[in-house]
Amino acid sequence: MKINSRKKNQIREIAEFLAMEHDETITPLKKIAHLEDVPVFYDDYGNAFDGTLVYDNGYYIHLNTALGNTQDKERGRFTLAHELGHYFINTHRLALKEGLLEPHPSRYNKNKHQMIEREADFFASCLLMPQERFRLDCEFYRRFDYNIIEDLHKKYHVSITACAIRFADIGTHPIMVVYMEDNKIQWKWQSDDFQFWNLADGKINVPKDSLAGQYFRTGIGQKRTEELWGIDWFNDIRDEDLNSKIFEQVIPYKNKALSIVWFA
Asked: Where is the IrrE N-terminal-like domain (predicted)?
């Protein structure tokens, strides 16, 4: 389920207006919260949540340091931007104030299919990487490779995942981003003009001949880029495209992996 275009434009306009009011490339989130009189509390909440916005005669944001949501970490910055999304998106803020929406703790990489979370994630991406500024930086590079994502994620102080998704949306080369756990695809995100959509082994199973598939199968692997055949990742490839080559950057970690895939 996608955010409808009218709501998406509204969210983008609000988030990018807030970001572009400041000259810093790294959006000053705490300053934005302070200007709105929204206190931000960092504390250890165990495994309960990453962040939450609550209303009690005023709005408050709570961020869970136990899960890495500290002020200086990329994860904490995205979670704070996400909770600011719940505050600045009128329907979210008013529903919370009027009791129509219960305080709902957010979890990083989870609940991607809930519309309210998609909207807050989109707000966070626009706030942290406003289109005008981010696109200009993308155009600096003539040809895509994974180092672009590395450069941009450091420049904007966002995670590789958030940066790759934003690049897929507004970057200068079509890419696909896939997040996996225990050899199962949790979600994927790709540019509208990405060449193929149907994965080799279905919507859930990690393609066995991909770098990620090899990692889950053997338990051995490291962060690297490798050239593969298109059929290693995709199904229903036309005969004339059977010799198409792709690149996959895999970032494995324990029972998880993130892959970024693109055509040369």
From this structure: 51-166
